[in-house]
Amino acid sequence: MFDFVLSDLFVVPAILMILAYFFIFFVVATIIKNNSIVDIGWGLGFVVVAWSLFFIGDIGVNTIEKLIVNIMVSFWGLRLFYHILKRNAFQEEDFRYKKWREEWGKWVVPRAFLQVFMLQGLFMYIVGIGVFYINMIEKEVNLILWLFIIGIVIWLIGYLFEVIGDKQLKDFIAKKNKDKKLMTEGLWKYTRHPNYFGEALLWWGILVAVIAFNAPIVFLISPITISLLLRFVSGVPMLEKRMSQREGWDEYASKTNAFIPWFPKQ
Fold this sequence. Notes:
Blueprint: H1 12-32, H2 38-56, H3 63-88, H4 95-104, H5 108-135, H6 145-175, H7 194-211, H8 221-233, H9 236-243, H10 249-255
C-alpha cells in the first residue's frame, strides 16, 4: 500500500481531455469576450473527464467502487455547474476577468489562454488526479472496504455541509431582513464559510476512498490543493473582502472560525 510510481501522476487520457475541454471554453470565451464562463466549466469538467475515463477504461475492473466514486464526484460537480450556470449565464463578464482584460490589453487572448483556461485545467487535473487514476485501473484491486466506507462518510458530511450551508444562506437572503446584514445562524454560527469547508471536506473523503484502492499516498495533493485554494486564494479571502464592509462583521469574525467549524468564542 502507498507505493509511489512516478507514472501514477500522469494519467495521459485525462490530461488530453482536460486540454481539449478548456480549449473549447477558451474559443467560446474569446468569441463572446467573456472569460468568466470558465467558472461554469469547473465542476462539470470533473464529471465529464471521470465518466469518459470510466468508459474508455476497463469497466469490468472494480466496477461498483468506480461507479460510487464517480457518482460522488457527479453529485458535487453537477450541483456546482448548475449553481454557477444559473448565476452567470447571459451575464456580463465577472469583474475579476474584466479587470484582467483591461490590464492585459493587446495580450488578453494569449494570457487568458494560459493564465485562465490552462491554469484552471492544471488545477482540475491536480484536484481530480485520484479519481482519474482509479478509473484507468486495469487490474482488479483488493479494496480496503472499511477505508472506502470511511471515505464515503467523510464525503457525505462535507456534501451536507455544502448543501445545507448554501440553503441556509439562500433562505436568509430571500427574507431580506433589513435589521440583519449577516448570516450568523445554523451552520454559519460555527464557521463563516460552511459551504467552502464542506467542499474541501468532501474532497478529503474522495481521497480516502481513492486510497482504499491501494493508490499512492502522493494523491494527498488533491484535497490539499482544493483546501488551500478555497481557504487562501479563490474562496474565503475574496468573499471576506466584500463581507468585511457590512455592519457587525468584526464582531462575527472575532467569534466565529473562518473555515473549520467550532463553537463560537465568548
